[in-house]
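Model it.
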Amino acid sequence: MARVRVLLARHQADEALALLEALMKGATTTGHFDRVIEMRLLQALAYQMRKAEREALSALSQAVHLAEPEGYIRHFVDEGLPIATLLSRLRDQQRRQGPTPYLNTVLAAFPQEGAGAKPLPHQGLLDPLSERELEVLHLLAQGASNQEIADALVLSVQTVKRHVYNILGKLEANNRTQAVMHAQSLGLLSEEQRRRMTNPSEQKGTAAFAYSVA
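Modeled.
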């Protein structure tokens, strides 16, 4: 991905697109859809560089399709004004079919010219946790394992792993322990859950805190 960005910085759009195509296959196969979102955004920028707006909007639309269910915003904001410009055009295009609340939210997160940085959305996170992710987070704070979370929420273990993966990314945490601590600092946990964090003897399955997504 770093190589793709170097190629784009050098305005070598064709080379960047060829490399992205190869990378996309691997990321899609392994289910790393957050990486696929980033690749689609870079693909959109490469097409924009080639003045191929239809292809750029198509790639951006696919990124939005993957990002919307998880509420991702940071991926778009990190790419700056070029993506904001494309998002605005995509929103104009999609408004013909109906409301575009997600695109409105993403565009509102970009710093406004002359206005300084925009305040962060709800939860103090650029990518707010979904209701389901909050439910998973609350169980993580109790030391629940993936299987226990799956049983409690009537989900598959694979789905739980995906939610945990998303939680770690949105909270910018390397493991469950960090995720819960960051959530605590952001006020995403109840008073009871905070108390359990400060009294490890009350947690069940405390060892689960050391586990990664896997």
